[in-house]
Amino acid sequence: MINVSTAVPNDNLIVERQSSILVKGRQRKNQLKCDAESIAGCVSQRACVYCGARVVLNPVTDAIHLVHGPIGCASYTWDIRGSLSSGSELYRNSFSTDLKENDVIFGGEKKLARAIDELVEKYKAELVFVYSTCVVGVIGDDLEAVCKAAAQKHGIQVIPVQSSGFIGNKSAGYRAACDALLRLIEPPGGPRPLNNGRLVKSVNYLGDFNLAGEAWIIKDYLKRIGVEVNVVFTGDSNYRDLKKAPEASLNIMQCAGSMAYLARRMEVLYGIPSMRISFLGLEDTAASLRRIAAFFDDPEMMRRAEELIEQETAAVRPEIERYREKLSGKKAAIYVGGGFKAISLIKQFREIGIDVVMVGTQTGREEEYQTLHDISDDGTVILDDANPSELERFMIEQGAHLLVGGVKERPLAYKLGVAFIDHNHDRKHPLSGYVGAVNFAREVYSTVCSPVWKYARDVGGGLYAAGNKALPER
Amino acid sequence: MPRETKHYRNVNENPCNMCMPMGGILPFKGIEDAMVIIHGSQGCSTYMRRHIAEHYNEPIDVGSSSLNEKGTIYGGSQNLFQALDNIRKVYKPRLIGILTSCLAETIGEDVEGIARDYLKQRGLDDFPLVAVSTPGYGGTHSEGYWLAVKKTVVALARPTEKHDGINVIVPNLSPADIREIKRILELMDIKYTLLPDISETLDRPIARPYTKIPPGGTKVEAIRRMPGAAATIQFGITVEENVSPGRYLQSQFGVPLYNLPVPMGVEATDMFVGLLAGLAGGSVPKTLELERGRLLDCMVDSHKYNAQGRGAVFGDPELVYAVVRTCAENGLYPAVVATGSGNTGLEDLLEPVLADCPGEVRFHNETDFAQIRTTCRETGVNIAIGHSDGKYLTEKEGIPLARMGFPIHDRVGGQRLLSVGYTGTTMFLDRITNTLLEYKHKNYRAAMYRKFYRNTGIEERGHTSLMGQAFGSEECPQLIPVLRGELR
Fold first, then answer.
1. CB interface of A with B, residues 37-96, below 8 Å
2. For residue A155, is it left (φ>0), alpha (ψ between -120 and 50) or beta?
3. Which of B15, B82, B103 shows the shortest C-beta gap to A41?
4. Which residue of B332, B340, B360, B416 pairs with B309 in a disulfide if CB–CB is 3.0 to 4.6 A?
């Protein structure tokens, strides 16, 4: 058996990391270790449970998002995401109980109760999410009890989110967020399947956070083919709309990493089937619209879907073709949060003539890595929970011209002379649907073909003089 | 100067500060071949890396001991051992800083003890491992910064032969500022050890080959020799004694300490340059005199514009002090002086500086942006000076923000902002003045129209197009103060 240490030997590679990296075509399938805890000292790019929970819940616009803990957790997550709202702006605040040493020693429950009182009084919200942090998990504040008492006192919903950082990784945070959402949508008297009175041709749209209005774009497409979006989880959502979630006839799911659990539970509790879709890239967008129309088994809807696909594709195709001509043959590296996004990106890169030579995720799951493996070209490096050192190494070895990633990865790519696409939650332009496909192609073109690399790549320092092939050829 | 101080409450609404370990990371980024590990759950290091990377636009690698449930219950020393092993393997550092998180402190980790055990077990007696206790609930990033600098000095400084160099200890300034301080030292022919030196490491030129730890930073050997220096200059007048590295060098090794304000503005830069001239026994070079003259010229040119400013200054205490003092030198007085730190010395320190301030000044310690916003509104602030979270004041109250300090996330170039020395102060004041001018030019036509024309009851004809444009205030929050008639 060939293992990674012989496939990709390197002095710097940490032994425990070897099982999380493979090269397609050089190893058997299913060897990739994923969904495991990060190894100490590896400089993982992952965040924590709280991060996962906050990402998913924060777009709920009219909720008070209160972090129970010391100040840092609230400080680093204040209005850093690009989720847009058509209504309340309350979610753009970051509230914290700002625990100090004495609170840690004597407990923070009373302070939390007072904080909720103060905020509810000031902002008149119907919904409060209380996030627990590492400290709270250790000192044992009874979040459930405080939230329950506050809910009764104010006649609103106060939902604890069990997101202490050390209880798992970011995926555990997604699950904590989904649990909070399940509590929110549960009707009085408990969950029950709605066989009668279910809305027809109405879907919940899961896993879109309305970054730069992406959920609005997709809502418009669906409306045009005759499907109403009941509520989006969680982009531009609010308390009242989320409450209606059990009435939809289908859950469509974009970000599966964060929402698969919620979808499964809603199927069990409310009898709502779910379908994975993706609105990243022309191919996936068209396929998703067709699958939704097929689900409703409505010839008129199918006709309208075809019409929309034809119209929208025709409108963007020429511009995308122009970029494709310039980009053909370039190589991309992908390092993103979830597996489903990575899969979509590989397809989307193909649409603009780019080969993916490295692909990795922070929290991808086994079946997603299986798919990544299936659709990747031979020689592609596939890795889970990578670190800067590995990203640096494989971008260089694989000759990537471009990296897709988030804020932390950007400066590394730039320093290495590699172009960069921001596919994180703080971006300010949509990458979904047809308009997003053009934006994506344009962004890739603007960075890969920028004149800056003429100057910034071939700098002094002896690299080329020494004949060192440490940088990709261009 | 009438003044008022408000204190902290049950809930922090939109923080004005970060946590201790965040501040502790930065000094280790300014030490040659150093790496840093946060002993805690994985998220701390990642959030902080993101926060720092977005400001400096540099790769920021910080290790984590990735504490999990097991480590939390049974102790995290194994995790920290593994983290140290892996960091040493991949980065080959010559110094490692270990910062604790809330989690590590709450479960009672003795990180100094773990560090000692590690060195012993690995047979690394001479390896500098600097453990710093930085619980997130123990203070702000400002205190974390100073404590990390002090602990580094404590860990490395040893009795050493006297030499004629001086120590220069700096707060969290931009890499451009550090370069300017070094330039002044070199112009004055001073031998120095500047700690921590992020001038190259966090503003790294594109160069090949890429190294995992950026070149530059204070040399470990130079830190070891700090006790032999002729003097220490520390830009840290707001720094409390117990975390003051300069005070430690003075009390332990008898190195005379000159604790100065950040050299910003005429007086503080004069103090710095004058002290250097005194220490070196030389005169001030012509270049610096010319720069000083240009600064004075800049100030005269813009003093009347500055007089129209009513400021809100917020951020790290040390920088807040320097900015308030610099602005006051040219007639721009603050209405709000705010910091997330519990540092209460600011008020007393600024009293002489603001002796001639005609208006009320409100001080907020341990504050948040909800409070700063309210006070800005009440006091008619028309310019905010501080880090980029102040964009909230622009969005909500239409107050323009001159960005300064750390972090700056919504603009590029935070690492290149120059504000110290005569030249830096000139550039800083120009930024401030231009922010005020831009605000004025954007608003004065509409303001005057509203105040002197519309109020007369004369029909508004002929101005409708202008008003339609200018008073689309929903989309133009800058006009909100104008509409309230608050334009000065």
1. 37-51, 66, 69-80, 93-96
2. left
3. B82
4. B332
